[in-house]
Each structure stands twice: as structure tokens, then as C-alpha cells.
Specification:
- The longest helix has 13 residues, at about 45-55.
- This protein has helices spanning about 45-55, 75-85, 100-110, 125-130, 135-150, 160-165, 170, 200-210, 275-280, 285-295, 320, and strands spanning about 10-15, 60-65, 90-95, 115-120, 150-155, 180-185, 215-220, 230, 240, 255-260, 265, 275.
- A twelve-stranded mixed sheet has the order 7-8-9-6-5-4-3-2-1-10-11-12.
- The chain is about 30% helix and about 15% strand.
- It starts with 10 loop residues before the first strand and ends with a helix.
């Protein structure tokens, strides 16, 4: 379907939990955040019902997220449930990779199309400082196993001067000898991220070119999102940039988000959206849910205003609570 601004909305990011097994400095405080009671989370069947209703409107691509989605019991089965929905062409996942080696066979069996693995540094000490967990080796193992299993792999890195500013060129090298795309995503000024120093995409590109040579724009399709991709000399994979702050792409935004508690969120920046949990639990059918979703999407905001003045409807949740 199209929203009120004429944008085609065909991509739904589905958070299955606000819990996570890492404590990344840009996402949550060291002690974590108070998790939602389990009874407040949509069940796997309820998530599937909402997604089926969304598919009636033209949603064809679903990204399963968290928190960390793989800490949610039944997450692998959910992938298969979503893949079975008529109209859903692709189900992918974003994960920190820690549990992926254990869950990968079941994910592949259930039809997972691609995986985005978050890894911000290859330095074990900096990884520990950034995530507050000494599990960098697990994530590296997850990347290798996913590639070996034939799953499309993207590595997501958030450039932050205090933690990985000197190691971006090394991160890019993950794409040198294997079919992995490394994507540099500008830090969103949300929650804990407001207190850190982001590195804009253009500066990341300058540092990569200083280390690896000139980048060549690559026009092919690599995924469902707004990343701009480049080739580097001798690299098998591509380098991508998602620069939502320095190079806003709201005019082509194709996504909405479903939080783990059933709130359909229209824009990362704002609270705008509609609560679907009560409608689902009161017995609303797919057609009724689809109409509620349709009406909400018509009011999707034109653009975010990160860096602007605070407004009454700004979202102050952490990324784990919203859904990555």
C-alpha cells in the first residue's frame, strides 16, 4: 500500500522481545532496562496474525528483530510461520550473532532468507568495552557459519569515535575475501546513543578509501533498506552506508515497525502509531486488523527530526525497547 505521502510501504520490522544478552553502550545502560512482562509480549501466533493482516496490504518483506531475537523461545519456528503467510516473499533477521551458531540450522530449515549480524569492532578489548560482554569470537564464528550455510550475510557496524573510530578499515576487510556486505550505519541519537560521538558516513568513507583505495558506486539491489553500496578494489563483498542523519532518506522510506508489545510504530523518531495487542486479543480478524493498520500507515510522518527541537510526540525509549 501507499501512505499518505505516496510512499510504498512493503517492509515490516518485527521485534519479538525487548530482552538482549549484550549491553551495548549505545543501546542500553550497563544494568539493562526493566523488561516487559511476558504477558505483555505478543505471542508467536499473535505476531503471525498481525503480519498476515499486513500482508493483505502489500507488506511482502519482514525483518525479525529484538532486543536480541534469538533469546526469544520459538524464534526459529516463527521464521517458518511468517514464511508460510501468503504474500510474504522474504523473511530476514537482525541479530548480535552470539546465539546464531546454535540456532542457525533451525533458521535455515525454517527458510530464513538472510541475516544481518551486528559487529562494531574486531578488537576483543574494544568489543568488551562496547558490549560489556567478552563474546567477540562467538560473533566472528557466527559470520563464518552463516556464510558456509549459504545464507546471505550483512555485517552491521555503528561507527562511534570513542569505541571503533580507529578500526573501521579493519571491519571493512570482512568483505574482502568472502561474500559478506559490511554496512556502516550512522548512530541514531536515541536513548544512550545521545551521549556518544557518531562518525558521519562521508567521514567513514574517507577513512576506508585512505586504507583500501577509491570506492566505486554499485547500483545493484542488495536488500530491502536504504543502504548505498560501493565496491572496493579486490573485495568480494560490498561496503554499504546507511546515513539517516547526515543524508536523510525519509522520502523513500518503505517501512513500519511492530514492537514486541504489539505497537505499530510508523517512524523511529516519533511515538506515532497504533496499539494492536488489544485488538488482536479481543478476536479481531485479519480484515479488521488490516483496516486498522491501513489507517495508521496513512498517517506515517513525512520525515524524522533527529537533531531538531524536542516535540511532544518524540520517542524516548531505548532501541532495544523499540526494536532494532
Amino acid at each position: 500500500m501507499t501512505d499518505g505521502k505516496g510512499r510504498t510501504i512493503d517492509y515490516l520490522r518485527v521485534s519479538v522481545t525487548d530482552r538482549c544478552n549484550l549491553r551495548c553502550v549505545y543501546c542500553m545502560p550497563a544494568q539493562g532496562v526493566e523488561p516487559e512482562p511476558y504477558e505483555n509480549l505478543l505471542t508467536l501466533e499473535e505476531i503471525t496474525r498481525v503480519c498476515a493482516a499486513a500482508a493483505r496490504l502489500g507488506i511482502s518483506k519482514i525483518k525479525v528483530t529484538g532486543g536480541e531475537p534469538l533469546v526469544r523461545k520459538g524464534c526459529t519456528q516463527l521464521v517458518g510461520m511468517l514464511k508460510a503467510i501468503p504474500g510474504i516473499r522474504e523473511v530476514t533477521m537482525t541479530t548480535n550473532g552470539v546465539l546464531l551458531p546454535r540456532e542457525l540450522p533451525a533458521l535455515v530449515e525454517n527458510g530464513l532468507d538472510a541475516v544481518n549480524i551486528s559487529l562494531d569492532t574486531l578488537d576483543p578489548e574494544r568489543f568488551l568495552a562496547l558490549t560489556r560482554c567478552p563474546l567477540e569470537a562467538n560473533v566472528r564464528e557466527a559470520i563464518g557459519q552463516a556464510v558456509k550455510a549459504g545464507v546471505k550475510v550483512k555485517v552491521n557496524a555503528i561507527p562511534i569515535e570513542e569505541y571503533n573510530g580507529g578500526g573501521l578499515a579493519q571491519l571493512a576487510e570482512l568483505a574482502k575475501d568472502q561474500p559478506v556486505d559490511v554496512r556502516f550505519i550512522e548512530l541514531m541519537p536515541i536513548g544512550e546513543g545521545k551521549n556518544l560521538t557518531p562518525i558521519p558516513g562521508q567521514e567513514v568513507r574517507r577513512r576506508l578509501e585512505a586504507a583500501h583505495g577509491p570506492m566505486t558506486p554499485w547500483e545493484g539491489k542488495r536488500g530491502n533498506g536504504p543502504a548505498v553500496y560501493y565496491s572496493l578494489p579486490g573485495f568480494v563483498g560490498k561496503i554499504g552506508f546507511i546515513s539517516a542523519i547526515s543524508q536523510e532518506f525519509c522520502g523513500s522510506c518503505n517501512r513500519v515497525r511492530l514492537t514486541s508489545t504489539g505497537y505499530l510504530k510508523l517512524c523511529l523518531h516519533y511515538n506515532d502509531g497504533v496499539a494492536l495487542r488489544e485488538a488482536v486479543r479481543s478476536g479481531a480478524g485479519e480484515e479488521e486488523l488490516a483496516e486498522v493498520i491501513r489507517e495508521a500507515i496513512l498517517h506515517k510522518p513525512l520525515h524524522h527530526d533527529f537533531g531538531g527541537c524536542e516535540t511532544a510526540n518524540m520517542d524516548h525509549h531505548t532501541m532495544a525497547q523499540i526494536g532494532g
